[in-house]
# Entry
Amino acid sequence: MNASAQALPPPDRDPDARARLGWTMLALVLLWPLLVLAEFRPWALFDAGNLRVMGSFLGGFLPPATSTEFLGYLLEATLETMAIATAGIALALLLAVPLSILCTRALAVSQIGPGPGRLGGNALRAAGRAVLTFLRAIPEIVWALMFVRVLGLGPAAGVLALAITYGGMLGKVYTEILESTDTRPARAILEAGGGRFAALAYGLLPNAAQELTSYTVYRWECAVRASVIMGFVGAGGLGQLMDQSMKMLNGGEAATILFVFLVLVLFADALSATLRRALA
Amino acid sequence: MNGTREPCAPRGAADFCLSCVLTGALIVAAVAGSFAYLGIDFPALFSVGAAADMGRFAASFFPPDLDPGFLRKTAWGALQTFAVALLGTLLAAAAGLLLALPAAGRHGAGAARLSRFVLNLLRSVPELVWATLMVLAAGLGPFAGVLALALHTTGVLGRLFAEAIENAPPQPEQSLLETGCGGVPAFVYGTLPLVWPQSVAYGLYRLEMNIRMAAVLGFVGAGGLGQMLYFHLSIFQQAQAATVLIVMFVLVLAVDALSDRLRAWMGRN
Amino acid sequence: MGFELEGVGLTHGNGFRALQRISLRLDRGERVAVIGPSGAGKTSLIRLLGTALRPSEGRLDVLGANPWRLSAGALRRLRARIGTIHQSPPIPPRLRVVTAIHAGRLGRWPAWKGLLSLLYPVDIAGAQAALARFDLADRLFERCDRLSGGQLQRVGIARVLYQQPDLILADEPVSALDPALADAALGELVAESGRRGASLFASLHAVDLALKWFPRVIGLRGGEVVFDLPTARVTESMLRELYAAEGGVLPMQARDAAPGAAADREADAKVVRLDTCRGR
# Structure
């Protein structure tokens, strides 16, 4: 080791310092326009008018609205939300199942070998995947908004919006699940000349069924939440009820609906967990 | 063959799972019940008339309005939506980290329970509901969107950060505390470097989700592309709405790609 | 005064008795090595002295105070005067060496200085000097995960020396170094203790190093002190009895160096200066 008598070279400067400074300055320079664009005005929270509105709204939280009439609406809306989610998932399955059978490489006869029709098969699968991506690309609430324009207010808009977007999501995940399980039984059936559906039913489903149903039930739980959100653009259910209450600045009703929503989410979560265990 | 079955053979058609069948029947009943309850008039919905209506509606989106003045407005809306998503996520990352420390148990069990409760509450309320509340608190405009995203995302990121902090090895921070270091510097020098890469990855992932949410929050008055879309659809200007939709799509793709590149770069370093 | 233990025992949470009836005394500036087979309780003893663990029974005085009777502030100030070298340096891999070294003085620096140092290192010269003593000055700005095991261990030692404590506790500080480097590193530690009058208490795996560098040796086995003698009075038979459970074979640094030590030797071959036989 060094004897301390030897003079050390002069201390270095931190080599990373300049780059760090550069990035920091860049971030600060970009931050200012971002704040302006987003109309960042924290003082607006303390503006007298806003405080008054917010105060009276929050004040209305207690007592929460518990009139029988309102509770009746609440029950209807809750059932409607769950029905929208269930019906939406059911229709989504109508889209997802055929598309996933089309797209999954696990059932691709032309891939064995590869054999004849490979190019056509690949093209078809690519097209199917493109369709699935398109279905997923637009958030369901945007679809809901557009369907409300055409079909009017009510649950139909929500059901169709869910059918489209969740059809895309379920289709994509089904494709992946079918490809990720052991595909040898299915390939064996295809190689023996069996049809696609036979390969699916006897080769893939026995292994994949549990994962498929588990994901579907999880998606149903998400659909319940999405149904509430879509209600804000007029697609029925708890969301529409809450939107109306908030537009009338009725804090009591909004608080009750919010509470019911949280309970509903917990319930859906518990139901989904039970179902997934029962189907295991 | 003798009667023994391979233990690992996949279940074939011969297996009969009673609970599966019962659950399946219940599900079918629930689905049928849902359709009945909603009372959607399916024949009318899928009738020729309705299909023609939908077709006309869909056709009215083309061609999208490409007038330069309107494109400028749409670009401005896209920048505004991006700003809302980015600011909301940044605020949430800071607030989430602040709440994650007590939630991970750094200040005792009582603080941990309280902060976890707050994080759960923030997470459970959807962004859109927060947005309607924030419009009341801060007025219409993108700032309400920033607050709404920040509130919801704090709950999400706070919980993820707290889990990462709890799972990090305690030795670095512990050894610094044993040299008489204060709690904050010990955390920053000891545990933060361990959870930093994972936390940034979570943040980028949330940014990707938030750019989609930011677009949608405009529906309740939080500015950006969402407010434009809502407005133009309300007055039946589908061509303009089509432009906004296309720009929304492009914005989401761009942010996804940017986030992917950043995560790949971080993975290499 | 270094430390004093009287009848100290330590029982871990799971009921395991790590230490019992330990009575030791270390004066200011004294240097002691503790040796013994694996599981003897060396690490527990070091952690006890470093105020990381509370004794289950007995009296403990470190640097003139009972640490567990002090207020929080006084305990912090006491801890800033104790430096522990861990066998496996507790340094986050992504940290740069300069930051890892600076962490040693966080106990003395105000919080703002510690945080500021992350933006730009506040004492590059000091960190460089500490590293230079271990021939690692050229690694100042590298990330710790780019260092070999032996280099990292030396960084750990340098960090404690940078802390300038009044009591140095070392838990197998040179286990990952090859014999030449281990010898040199211990020499640095002993020199530091002499220069600043700091007490040095080191647990060592290698008996040859303990006998060479320390005027007093403690033998620990099964959580109890077997002997506590000046080095000259330690006999071969005492040592063999101490390590009886391991077949009476005495561990030596040359024989039992960590696997990475060979690579370390190559990495440092150009820079190491063999300076053996530095006196006691």
User: Anything to note?
Assistant: Chain A touches chain B through 56 residues (CB under 8 Å). The domain at 68-278 of chain A is CATH 1.10.3720.10 (MetI-like fold). Residues 181 and 208 of chain A are 6 Å apart (CA to CA).
